[in-house]
């Protein structure tokens, strides 16, 4: 099969052990990103199969109609709103997604950002490279209030890390199932969101993005946070009300943010309104981009290719 892997920013796929599963197939990897339907249609015009890395590439109805040779979309990780599954079904394109995940990777980057934000690790390291010494005074996280929004696999791990570091861990009890899970693990709950955001020294977001959670964190929530508080978002940028974070940071509440996700990715220009701020750390959505996770994600996606080529498709969404 002629297989295209788009948006492989780090050219990672070809370095993985699991890439050998595609021996015998014609594979093309693109590192750069194009977004217009015309550009994508030209790039994918001869593809019989696409391997999508998370939500990096949008497959719309308009695009699908212009890909007559396409038989299979093999999704690495969870399927999502970036694929018009109904349009694929109508055009005879099979969509497969294993749904595998690695919550440890996302939890680890969350903790790295939390510590980097409170101890100013990045700016201090950069100062040292310039021959400068000790520019800002950080704070310990021990004894601080860590507020977690979303208590699934990742949120649970971050809560465990917080307890290990001596933090007061509290989960926002916005749903009965969240309250039940947290209490079962001995984690404190605050159901009043005003109190939750007002008391937190750190708020870390771990909700899945869907119609109910889009814009879940509002400008009013952020403006209740302390001027010394830190917001950590390694989940999805649209969990925060559009434009709210920039307005809140401009107003000084919260005082700091550490972000691994953005409304429009990848960011390829330096005048983005969240870049260049001394109180904001921005990383390029690297929460899941570590070798072990990619072996799992892309290994499963390549298995889907092999199974489809053998006439026995697996993990079929459409």
Describe the structure.
The structure is a single chain. The chain contains eleven helices and twelve strands. The protein is of the alpha/beta class. The chain has two domains: 2-101 and 290-309, NAD(P)-binding Rossmann-like Domain (Rossmann fold), CATH 3.40.50.720; 103-282, Rossmann fold. Strand 9 (202-205), helix 9 and strand 10 form a beta-alpha-beta unit. Helix 4 (103-119) packs across helix 6 (153-164). The radius of gyration is 21 Å and the shape is globular.
Identify the notable features of this structure and list them briefly.
318 residues; Rossmann fold; 2 domains; 11 helices
Low-confidence stretches: none
The end-to-end span amounts to: 20 Å
Query: Which fold does the CATH topology of the largest domain refer to?
Result: Rossmann fold
Q: Level of helix content?
A: 25-40%
What characterizes the major β-sheet?
Answer: 7 strands, parallel
Proportion of beta-strand residues: 15-25%
Q: Write down how many β-strands occur, each being a DSSP E stretch of 2 or more residues.
A: 12
CATH superfamily placement of the largest domain: NAD(P)-binding Rossmann-like Domain
- The number of helical elements comes to 11
**Which sequence of SSEs, written as H and E, runs from N to C?**
EEHEHEHEHHEHEHEHEHEHEEH
User: Rounded to an integer, what's the Rg over CA atoms?
Assistant: 21 Å
> What is the residue-mean pLDDT, rounded to a whole number?
96
> What's the domain count?
2
């Amino acid at each position: 099969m002629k297989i295209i892997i788009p948006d492989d920013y780090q050219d990672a796929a070809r370095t993985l052990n699991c890439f050998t599963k595609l021996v015998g197939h014609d594979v093309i990897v693109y590192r750069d990103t194009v977004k217009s339907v015309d550009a994508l249609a030209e790039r994918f015009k001869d593809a019989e199969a696409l391997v999508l890395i998370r939500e990096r590439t949008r497959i719309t109805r308009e695009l699908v109609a212009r890909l007559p040779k396409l038989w299979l979309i093999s999704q690495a990780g969870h399927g999502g709103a970036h694929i018009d599954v109904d349009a694929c079904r109508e055009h005879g394109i099979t969509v497969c997604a294993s749904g595998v995940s690695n919550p440890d990777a996302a939890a680890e980057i969350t903790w790295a950002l939390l510590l980097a934000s409170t101890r100013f690790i990045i700016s201090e390291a950069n100062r040292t490279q310039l021959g400068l010494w000790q520019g800002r005074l950080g704070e310990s996280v021990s004894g601080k209030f860590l507020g977690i929004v979303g208590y699934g696999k990742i949120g649970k791990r971050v809560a465990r890390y917080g307890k290990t570091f001596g933090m007061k861990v509290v989960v926002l009890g916005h749903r009965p199932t969240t309250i039940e899970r947290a209490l079962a693990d001995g984690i404190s709950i605050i159901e009043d969101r005003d109190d939750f955001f007002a008391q937190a020294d750190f708020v870390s977001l771990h909700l899945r993005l869907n119609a109910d959670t889009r814009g879940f964190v509002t400008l009013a929530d952020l403006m209740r946070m302390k001027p010394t508080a830190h917001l950590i978002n390694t989940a999805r940028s649209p969990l925060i009300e559009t434009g709210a974070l920039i307005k809140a940071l401009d107003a000084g509440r919260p005082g700091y943010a550490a972000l691994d996700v953005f409304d429009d990715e990848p960011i390829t220009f330096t005048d983005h309104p969240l870049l260049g701020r001394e109180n904001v750390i921005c990383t390029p959505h690297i929460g899941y981009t570590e070798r072990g996770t990619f072996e799992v994600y892309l290994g499963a996606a390549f298995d889907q290719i092999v199974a489809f080529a053998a006439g026995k498709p697996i993990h079929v969404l459409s």
